[in-house]
Amino acid sequence: MDPQHPQHPQPDEQNYRTIFDASENAILVIDWDTGRLLDVNRKACEYYGYSREELLAFPPEQLGSGLDGSTIERGREYLALAREDRCPAFEWQHRHRDGTLHWSEVRLKPVTLGGKRTVLSFSVDITARKQVMEALATREEQYRMIFEASSDAMFVWDRDLRVIDCNQAGTRLFRRTRESILSRPFGDGVPKEYIDQRYFLVRKALQGETSVVETMAFRHDGTSFEAELRIMPFTRGGLPQVLVVVRDIGERRAKERALQRSEARLRATVEASFDAVIAMDQTGCVLEFNAAAERIFGYSRDEALGRLLSSLVIPERLRAAHEAGLERYRAHSRGTMVGRLVETIARRKDGTELPVELAISVATAPEGNIFVGHVRDISARREAEAERTALEAQLRQAQKMEAIGQLTGGIAHDFNNILTSVMGYVVMAQERAGEVGDPALVRQLGQAHLASERARDLIAQMLAFARRQKGDPRALALTPLMRQTLRLLRSTLPSSISLDAQWLDADSAGDASWVMGDPVQLEQILFNLCINARDAMDGKGKIVVRLGRREGAHMRCASCRGAVANRAWVELRVADTGSGIAPELLDRIFDPFFSTKAPGAGSGMGLAMVHGIVHDHGGHVLVETAPGQGACLSVLLPPTAPQDPFAQTRAGTLGAAKLPTAKVLLAEDDVAVGNYLQEQLTNWGLDVTLVRDPAQAVHLLADAEREVRLLMTDLTMPGMTGLQLAEQSRILRPSTPVLLVTGNAAEVGEDEIRASGVSRVLKKPLDAATLKRTLAALLG
């Protein structure tokens, strides 16, 4: 074994990570050779105030404050000792990122981690302990200064009835040296008739009772004098002791008042260490205002003393109740706030308000009652509680939306399969009715097709709500798009509802309404919001639509409960003059199928659709409402840079060219969809082989004698997905194009499609014209 590099047991990696990440010690992993930081844990980041990446850029010896021995040179010495496993625990002062200084106790240990020699640094914050020790030292110094400076004779007795301390006043009063007093046995020089009294009073003091007696005191030289003995329990260094104060009766009154004032000031200082302590008299004037009160409320002690408390820290709306409570106590010696811990609102010097915890006690003084209030600032606690409540609500909402989204995706897949065959057969029937010259049947089938399209649109809304179906995002200006949508909307509104619009003018606002989005979905947002506003006004009122810019700060989304980023947003506001939204309904208005209308009067998908589209576009929804004062729903969308409209070209559409005669292999497990597609493709002149089992399709593709010009496959099939079938086709017939058909396009990503060899993707329900153009392109 190398004595210069002692080997230590290598910790289990999993245990190491668990301890490392969960430890409440600040842990640094230091490279043995370079002395650089290799890793830091969460507590270290909190401890120094830097991110992990920032900390890793620091040499460990430079984390010291540079004061009190915490220097770079000293840090390097400790690191050298640690490599030899000879470094003792040491105290180290570091400077937090915010500039504050902290003390820690550091232990350095050489450890091999993952085969690499390192030095582990474990730091424990001892700032509080150092402060306590310094406070104890200061307190002892203060005790000694007070003890020795007192004009009263003072003696400290221990449990064994030995004098263990006395001050100079005691030596002068009893005309003896301190050494002779400390060696004096109990009762020395005291007549027998007084010894029992002294013994009894000292024992009472050791049991926690204070006694004050007037008696005779005796000196060693035989002289005596009348004295007041104050015998009280006393604790120093955690040990119970007895403090005996001896005072000449002649000077008693003056010195007693001075001692009481001194004790009161000292007690107020100790009790105010954490909370504000404010005392007032019976008239409400401030008598005491400690340092914590100065810090919390912003007034200096001199500013506060003598002024009415109500004018300083009580909000104006609460002052009448304060005066009434003070008057009630003066009249009946009781009050609702006295002797209780209550939460209320206070006011700072700058006028801002803060939540506080208040406890009021009453002390009786010769000049009347004194009210002492202990005030604690609970702003941080309230903020933490509010944040926790918001996070819990956000989590519940996210879980609910995820569950609904999963359900919606499954329903949409099955519906799209059904609609594919229904809409396909309706189109085929329309063509046949046209050929035989039956216009009434053509019209009736057209109505059936329109109904099927409405069902298709409802499924699209459900998928958009669940964010399982992406739109076609592009950079566009909202102003012209919204204007066009409102022109269509006006025809759906009764004449008793007025519509007012305020737009961002592109010429004057520098194209400030540009966003990245799908135009159809964005039109749907405005349409749904306006229809929602129309229905909220019972046929009479006013809708105001405004498009503008807004800064997001201290706002929370009404639908996802998440915090709105502090940035610029494009805002679409739709306000109505209806009855408003009841508070108990605000948490439900974005739920799918939730509606306050009569059964059958609405689908309940309007605002749910808004939720899905807005969040798919990276936005949020705000709601402002009050009962009887209407409602205003604001959609916030991220802005984007304006685009040159002439640079955007639309892809041309394929003509309805006649399809060539070709052999098509169709893999579709849904019976109705498969039968429809086989019949439709056959009508278009294609030779179609339909298989329900993808394994059978692989078998046919592997037959080299069989001609297959095109593979058309469903995505979701038992035993093998359409992507897996496409991969097999690419291996067996690399030149054969593959057309993938799916009821939920969000189930598969673009990377997966490219990797599998799929040539085109069509969404169910299939549009016959689109299908024909796609087939022509793939077979041409």
Record keyword descriptors for this entry.
transferase; Beta-Lactamase; HisK_dim/P_sf; HATPase_C_sf; disordered N terminus; alpha+beta; 5-stranded antiparallel sheet; 27 strands
CATH architecture of the largest domain: 2-Layer Sandwich
Shape: elongated
Q: If strands are numbered along the chain, what order do they take across the biggest sheet?
A: 2-1-5-4-3
- The CATH superfamily of the largest domain is known as Histidine kinase-like ATPase, C-terminal domain
Quaternary state of this entry equals single chain
User: Roughly how many Å is the radius of gyration?
Assistant: 43 Å
Uncertain regions spanning at least 5 consecutive residues: 1-10, 506-510, 645-656
Structure classification: alpha+beta
Strand content: 15-25%
- Number of strand segments: 27
Q: The biggest beta sheet, please?
A: 5 strands, antiparallel
CATH fold field value of the largest domain: Heat Shock Protein 90
Explain the overall architecture.
Residues 12-56, 139-209, 262-333 form the PAS domain. Its EC number is 2.7.13.3. With 780 residues, the protein is of the alpha+beta class. It folds into six domains: 13-125, Beta-Lactamase, CATH 3.30.450.20; 132-261, Beta-Lactamase (2-Layer Sandwich); 272-377, PAS domain (Beta-Lactamase); 397-465; 474-643, Histidine kinase-like ATPase, C-terminal domain (Heat Shock Protein 90), CATH 3.30.565.10; 663-779, Response regulator (Rossmann fold, 3-Layer(aba) Sandwich), CATH 3.40.50.2300. Helices cover 41% and strands 24% of the residues. The chain has 24 helices and 27 strands. Strands 2-1-5-4-3 form a five-stranded antiparallel sheet.
